[in-house]
Structures are given as structure tokens and as C-alpha cells.
Amino acid sequence: MFKPPFHYADSSYSTENPSILRKTSSTMAAQWLFCNALIALLIFFIAPHLSKSDDRSTPSPGFAYSWMDDDDEFYPGDIATIEVKILGNYNSEEYKYPFDPNITVNGSMGNSSYVTDVHSDFGNDTNNWRILFKPIMVGVFYMVIDDEHFRVHDNSLHFHVSPAKSYIPPHFMFRWLNSKSEFKAGDNATIQVIVSENLNTKTYKYPFNPNITVSDYNGKNEKMGNSSYITGVSYTLGPDTNKWELHFMPIMVGMFHVLITQENLNVFDASMSFSVTPAFIYKPAGTVSWRGEGNHFVAGTTAKIMVLPKDAFGNNATRKSEGSNVIFDIYATTEEGEDATVLDVSQNGWNTFGGLSTNFIAATSGNLLLHVKDKNQHLIGSPLTFMVDPGPLDVGNCVPHWGIESKSFQIFSIMETFITQRDKYGNLIPGFYPFDFDVIEKGTNLSLPIGDLKYQEVVPGVQSLSFKLLQHGEFSLIITDKDKKKQILNMPYEFSIYIGYCDGMKSIVNGSGLHNSVAGEVSKFSIFLRDAYQYPSPIEVHRLRVEITLPSLSLHVDPQIYPMDPDNGTQSTGMFNFGALEVPSIYLHNNKSDEDWKTWNSNFEVVYIPEKSGVYEIRIYCGNIPLNEGKPFTKFVSAGKVNASVSRVVKYKARVSKAVLHSVDLQLMDSFSNPVLLQESELSKLTLEPDSINKPFFMVVLFVDNRDGTYTGFYMPMNLGTYKICASFDGMSISPCPFEVTTYNREDFPIAYGLDVSVWEDESIVFNALVNDYFVGGKAKVVEYERPGHGSLLQYGDLFIYTPFKRFYGNDSFPYSMSDANGNNASSHVNISVRCIPPQFVSFPTQLQADEDTFSPKFGGYSGFEITYSDSTENISIMFTAQHGSVFLSPLQMQLWDPMWKEISVTKREGTSKELIIRGRLEVINFAIKSLKYIGEGNFSGEDTVKVTTMNKHGKYDWDIPVIVNPRNDPPFINVPEFILLENVTKDEGFLIFDRQRDNFNFSIGDPDHLHFTGNKSHFRVMFSVEVSSGYFSANLPAELTSTTELKLKNSNSNQWQPLLTFIEISRRFSLKAKAIRFRGTIEDCNTLLQQILYYGDEDGGVLTVSVNDMGWYGCYPEDCQEMMSVPLISEASINLIRKMPVDPVVAHSLISAIVIESTILSSLTTILIFYTSKCVFALLHKKFKDQPQPQSQNFQLHKLQSSHEHMSSTKDSSENITGQPSSLSNPLNEESKIGLSVDSHTSFPSGQINGTLSVNSSSLVKILH
């Protein structure tokens, strides 16, 4: 609201200072007028310039109008459409006002008697702007379209409206295509739409776009559109209505009903149903589980599993849908991933439980994993964990392992073997089993004496046997069971013991052959055997072993060993060959005899040629004595020079786009096919060269070392055509040379961008994987794809249908490769987000029972509530709302498990919504909802509904649970005041007791049970009575109450109720005058009587008594009242009819309070005064008796009394001592004292008289003080 720039003076100010007000008002008014004039001038001069500036910056576009499809003839009720075409540039953000033209038909703007439903369709797509309306009057009309902001004024359009024929609404019927209503899951179901001939699509604002709702066989659990029942809902609604069809794909097995609806076209068809059987087995969707006695076995026993096969949509497959030949890949591994043995795997086909049975023998012991796969994809539940214990010991399968593999042992050395205790299937058996062994000398078959024999278990299942060798010769070792009936494997073990003193620590090994070298080069090193005192320790040549291995390739190299001439250390005296090896002729001495090979020697030369690159290990043994402390010598052998004939071009693309970087991968190798690692400086020797014709249009960018012997070169062809390219190293061509590359335009190659889709965990989704991809030629196809890991994928031409596996949620994906019409390929991924459906009820009560105004149930909470949710770790919510009550949690159960309640959030919203919201994980919510309680709002009974909403981050589900609230009887109520003031009441004119306009009070009676009465409220009747203590009253009642009305006559002294005998009925009503009336009627009848009572009383007034008896009604209807009637409840109220206004209760209460407070204060003061007065009197008496001598004469006593009196009268302080009062009261007190104590000094009194006089005067003193 606009306020002038000054303030008006208030009324008081203007009254006291009228001249100032006139002066101030005139001055401020002049200022206000001046400001307004100045603003108007600014607007007048500046606005045109602003307008011109806007016009120059953004010129207004033009608009052209035409009839859609050039159709300007209509029937009444048709939809007329005008197309709007923009001429020029239009940007709505540049204009202050949007384009919003006015439509004027025959001079009438907007909706009129000519047209109706005028509206515009101006969306973001300006190419589809339209103006629509419905003509409703017959005739020829001209039209004007104008918009003042855009200077639009078009009057070029006319239209003609012809009389409509008799209108018959269109009718739609539906039937299955080819009468096929039985499908397999994944089939295409088609419904034909049969349309009546009078359908005119222009007549309707909304097109035909029906909703398809599918429910189960019982007509429950309705789900609209794509759901867990069907997917891929689509319509074929072209111009030819004879070919209209509805399509969907059933995915769940069972019997279903179809409901087709469209509200704005009155479409409602529930006549169709269909059945679905399982599709073919989709092996990875099957569920695998153990069958039988669990997953714990003994090696050699038979284990059984069962596969419950599913189709691609999660339905249980059957023998009928698939057949009997269903094979899976089954194998076992250890938890570390090593292979485990399962034997005799037999897939037995279908069993009586509808699954596929498989048996196998568990052979390998330990904690294992059983893998059940199809094409390298696990079935659901795979891998299965199981445990296998080893079987009994099989002596014949126990294996000896030697600490050092040798057939020659040096005398006095230790021979040690490790016996692996195994069962029949080679599993280690823990424990220490007794074995027996013999060492027998060849030739004599005598047992060799053994020294320092030791047995010990080194690891569970392996025991060590060692002893000292004390005699040389040829021997056999035999290990058997303790009964010597059965030998272990590889027995007897033959070995020889020779006399030698070689020391592995003192012996020497050196030479260039121990250092790094190049593949293919001859390597050699020398061995000098020495004893513990570093003297030469000769042995026979064949007892020296040299092991050269390449662990990375599990390769063994066979060396040649040559004894060296002990004289000069260079000339060989013989050769021991561990394998075929070509060596230079300088090392060959073929003129030596066989006896020379057995020559004893302590110096040897070893020659070998490593051909593969890598790290070699060299171990040397003198018989069973390891040299170099048993540690291997290591050396690195690098690759040799690049051999172009062995090197290859390993990867390149034959079809590439021009002006784009492309790559070529080369593999460089030496003569022994070892990958060659180049130095960085050698990368420049790698080249890519095209043929001479294309050389000007070819550019090599660089080569990159991949650190594994391969090198990637990048090049860019700049022209279209075929390039012949050669790769070379240091001028040497690498095969294939040349290789051909054909270049195309960049636009000719497809680009795969991939796709992101989402689906609910219990539904399927149909999508086109290529919808985002770029390709030329208008045609492309998916040539290769992999199956996703957590759902089924089926291909239907260009479409895929994906269904997540049961209970899976999260992210899934699969790669695909697409090819265009020219054979060019591109690859990408489809990413699938599987969303958890909101929590679902596993069980919930179909109906809740409660009692009116009572917490229900009385003990605990309602049972039967349980929800399920896939992600047990996610926080979810559940909300309860009652329409006529409140839902809450039992506080007792909340205290029983305190730790759990720390993980849950409970919100109770009061007000109109009254929501109870519980947030937390699945486990705690299921615990919490077992403590639900309900209470209805005040006096509510009947049927209520508890709405339950389960929510997660993706959505929500709603359920309605009915609640039956059993009523209980509540007493009726009477709303009347405590008194009513009788004003101007005469005996001739009655006084309207309950007058709402006069007293502003809601005079009424009622019953809480009447509000929620389940039947007709006219059946709810009460017994109502009104009675006055003096005088009488008149009332007007409906004729229906004559049979139940009783009264007490106004002139009768009797208190007995009498039936109504005579009455006069006028207009179905009758009047009566009585002292008291009662009748049985409705609540409305009672309130009508209450508000029309006319009282005729005397001067003293009286008491009006109102009574209501509910007769036992409490919300039941006549059919069930026999069981639900209760003891009647009666309410009564009395109203005082008075002539004068009584004291206001607040005032009366205040007066009483003041009187009580005053009395309390006075009583307190009196008590205090009496206390101090008594104290003074007792003090005087005490002093008197203290000062009286023994014995004393009466004269002496009188003298003392007079002296005392004189002293008291002469001093001001003496009065204070007696009375205890302030000095201001001393004068009157002294006068009274003189009067009470005045005696003649010469008169004698008996002591009793003196005492009596003193008592009386003391009383007088108290009275004065009071």
C-alpha cells in the first residue's frame, strides 16, 4: 500500500493545536504533490528513450498464423488448431512480457458464445506453437489475433462451423491378437484395439492413450504399467485405427487379469486375462544349494547339490519347459584359489523337487569352495562353501621327500627324509603314525647299523626321519608300516655312501659364469672342493651335481662339467655331461676313455649356455653336501641384439580415420625369442614409413616403450586412401612389411557412447543399447556383448531386456561392441543401476481391534507386522497415520532392549497429521513395529484406517489396514449455566429461559456416542426430562412424541409422572403447560424443547432441573445392540432461576479472602500483646516476693507498696517495665495505675485485701492495653 512521504498528526494533537495541524498538513500536501509531479515528468521524458533503446537492441519478431492441415471447417465441439510460425528471432528472456495473444471471434474476445476452451500451447519447441479452441455455435466466423506488446494484429483467418450430426460417443473394445492369451515369459503379448466408426480424433482434447493395469488371479495386487508382472509396455496407434494395438511382455509366471482404462474417454475394460509359463532356462539365474545332510564331509564320501533352474526372469523352470539335458561346469578350489579335486561328478537331471541333482566325491580335504558355473559365470549361491576331513591313513599312498635329492651321500653325514602321511586321496593326516624302516646293503642283504636315529613331527601330517651314515657302500632304504606288510611310495630307495670329506663352507665357486650375461653366450665357472681344513677333497665326477634353473619359466639348463688338471688347473682330464650341449671344441677331449670319467678330482669347470632372458638360480652339491650354505647363486641374463626376422608387428587397425592419431604395436625379439628392452636413446631407431606416394601425407609422432619388449608407435594419416606401411629397427624391416591401412573420413566411423539405465530390483527393463551411439548409414547392430554379472540379459533384435537376479541391488554393467553398415566397430558399456524397492510387508494383520478411549492392545503391541528389505544396512523409514486416532510405540517395550533403541529414530508429529515415523535398519524397525499401539481420538468408535507408508531413498509404498474401534458407553452431557436472571417476568407472559441471543450461551444436551453412531442417528434416543421447583413452564412438542411423553401437572401437588391423555395437535405439533415433562426422543428433539421453554414463575424464582438418560446406547446399531447394550448412564443439571443478580463469584471470593486475612493479622497481634503483658506481670510479682523480708509486718508491707507506687508514678520508664509498651503509651497507663493503686498510707489492710486489689488493677491494666 502506498504511503505519502509525511505523517499525519493524531487527533489529540490536532485538537490542541489546530493552527499547527493546518500548517503542517498544507505544507506536507504541497510536498507530496511536488514529488508526484516530478516523478511523472521523469517518466514522461525517459520512458520513450528506454523504449526506443529496447526496440533498437531487440527488434520484435513477426508471427504468421494458419489452420493446422488447412482444416477450417468444424462441427460444434471439435478442437480447432491454429499453427503459429515465428518470423525472425524470438528469445523469451529478452522481452519483459511473454507472447500471449488475444483471440477475438466476431468481436467477442476469449471464451464466448461462439467458442470455448481457448488456450495456447507455447512450449520450449517454438516450431510446435499452437492456439486451440472449441467452436460451439454454427455459422461463419472471422477471427482477430492481437498482442499489444508485440504489435500483432492478424485478421486473416476465418472458419465455418456446420451443424453436427447426432453424436454417438466412441466405443473401444479389446481382444487378444489371434486369440492368443497363453504366453511364455518373454513373449510379446498383443492386444487389438477395436474402435467404433464415429471416432474423430480432433473432437477430443486428449488422445487415446490407455493405462494397462495387471493384477493377480484373485484380482489383488494391482500394478499399472511396467511392473514385476509385465514390461515393455508400448502402443501402436497410427493413423489407421484398424491397426491399433497394445503391446507388452509378460515376465512373471501365473494367471493374471488385465484392466484397460482411460478416464477422459470412459474406457474401462476388465474382461481380459492371460496365463504365463516359464521360459527356457537361463543357467546363470539358477540357484544352487546343498542337498542332504549339510556341507561337511569326509574325503571319499558322496556330496549332493541341487540346482533350482530359473528362466531369465527369475521364474522357476521345469522339465517341461527345458528338457532333461542341462549341464553345468562344476569344480572346486581352496579358499586361496588353488585347485581342489572332486571326483565322479555326475549330473543326474531333474529330481522330484523340481531341481537338477548333481553328485560328486569330495577328495581334497580342507575348507573348500564349490564353483557351479555356466560359461564362466557363477550361478546364484555359487561358490558354495564346504569342509572335507581327511580319510583314514593309507600307507601305500604316503610319500617320502628328501631334504636333498641325491643318490650319493658322504660318509658320516646325516640322511633325512620327510614322510608325508596321506589318505587314499593324498590329503595330509595329522598325527604321529609309527613307521618301520630298514637300510639293507646290496649284495649281502644285511641291515646297516644306524646311529643317531631321530623321529619328529615337523608340521601336522609330516614327520621327519634322520640318521647318521656310518659305513660306505651301496644300500637300499625301505620304509613300511609297523607290521612291515606295506611299503610307502617310491620304495625301496637306493643310494650309495662314499668316503669323502667335502665341506660346503670351505669349498670355492667362482668364475664369470656366475655373473650377468647375454642370452646365447657361453658361460662358465670353476668349482674347488675343499675339506674342513681347506685341503682338496677329491670325489668322483658323477657325484658332483650342478642345478641351473630359470624359475620364471620353470626352465632347467643342463650344464657340462669338466674335471680340471690338478697340475696347471687348465687342462681337462675328462667331461661329465648332464645333457646335450654344443660347446666349443676346445673343451672336448674325445680321446679319453670311459675310465677317465670316473677319475677322482677336486677341481671342476662347469660350462652352460643360457638362451632365455631372466634371473637364473645355480645350486651346487657335492654328493649330498650343498655348497654356499645351500643358498643359490643368482645371475641375470639379458636379451641379445634385436633380430628383425623374429620381431613382429603385433597389432594395428586396417581401417582408420584420417587426421587422427592411430597406434601400431611392435614386439622386438632377439634370436632366441627373448623380448628386447631398448635404452631410451635407442627408441629413435624405430621408424614407421609409408610408401613413397603417401609419404607427404603421413606423420609419425613418437614411439612409447611399454616396458615389456613391446613398443607402440603413433602416426597420423592426413589423406584418404590406402597406405602401405613398413616398420623397421635400425634400418631392418619388421614383418609383416608392408602392412596395409585404409583411411576414411572421420564421420564414417561409429562412436559408442554407452548407456545408463535404471530398474527396480523386482522388475525388468527393455532398452536399445545403441540409442546414444553415433553411426552412419542409418543401420548398426550389436555384434558382441558379454553377460552382466548380476542379472539376465536377452537380445531381441536391436533391443535388450535385463532382469536383475533375485535380491540383487546396486550397480551392474556389461560391455558390447557395435558395427555399422560398413563394418566399422566401436565398443562401450551399458551401466545398470538396480534400485531397491521400498520395504515390503512380509506379513501384516488384515484388521486391528481396539476399544474406544483405550490404549490397544492392553499388553504389548499388535503382532503380525514384519517387513523385508534387500539392503539390511541401509536406514529406511516406516510411517503410520490413523484417520481418527493415533499410533505410537509401547514405552515398556522400548525400555526392554536399550542397545537396539540407540540405532533407531522415532518421530511423533502431533497436529492434523499425527504421524509416527520410525527410521533405522531393517532389524530394529521389525523389532519396533511389534510394539505398536493405537488409541482413537476422543470418544471415537467405529471403523478407522491406519495408513502405513514404507520409504527408502528411491520411493515409497502405501498400505491401508482397517481398525475396528469397539464403542463403550459415555455419559450424556448438559450445557447449561448455573443460574439465569429472570428479568421482567410476569405471571401472564412467559420468560424464555434458554435464549442464545440474550445470554450468548450454547444451551444444549448431547451424547458423545451419538457422534459416531453407526446407524441412522434417528434411532439413537434418550430419556429427557425438565422440571421446575416452583411455577410452571410451557413447551411445544412434535406429535411423534405423544406416546412417550409424561408430565407433572402445574396445579397438582403430586410428584408422580402421569401419561399424556389429552392434547390438541396443530400442524403435527402440540402444546402443553406443566411443572415437569419427560419423553423419549432424539438428541434433536431434546435440544428443540430446551430452547423453547417459557417459564411462568413467582417473585422468588425457582430451580430448573434438566436430566438426560442415555438408555444404555453407546454407538451400536439395532442389529447388534443385544450384545452391546450397557447399563444406562444419567446426567443431571440444576439451573437457579433468580430475580436479582448474585454477587460475582470472583468478587465474593475476594471479600472472603480479605476478611480471613484481616482476622489472621488481628489474632496474631493480640497473641503477641498478651504474651508480653503476662511476661511483665510475672516479672513484677517475682520482684515483689524477692524484695519482701522474713518475717514482715503488715505496716512494712503497705509501706513497700506505697513506695513502689510512688516510684512507678514518678518515673517514665516504670510504665514501660510494667506494660512492655513504648513510651508514648506511658501517660494514660500511669493515670490508670494511680487510680488502681491509690490507698491511704495510714490505713492498714489485711494482706489478702492488698493482694486482691493488686489483682483487680492488673486486670484493668490489661483492658486498657487491649
TrEMBL record:
Membrane-spanning segments: 29-50
Gene Ontology terms describing biological process: actin cytoskeleton organization; pollen sperm cell differentiation
Keywords of this entry: Membrane, Repeat, Transmembrane, Transmembrane helix
Residue ranges of domain GEX2 N-terminal Ig-like in the record: 61-161, 170-276, 284-388
Polar residues bias spans: 1190-1201, 1216-1230
Keyword Repeat attributed: yes
Filamin repeats: 499-637, 705-743
Pfam families: Big_9 (PF17963), Filamin (PF00630), Ig_GEX2_N (PF23616)
GO MF annotations, alphabetized: actin filament binding
SUPFAM superfamilies: E set domains
Spans annotated as Disordered: 1190-1231
Matching Gene3D superfamilies: 2.60.40.2810, Immunoglobulins (2.60.40.10)
Basic and acidic residues bias (residue ranges): 1203-1215
Protein's name in the database: GEX2 N-terminal Ig-like domain-containing protein
Source organism: Lactuca sativa (Garden lettuce)
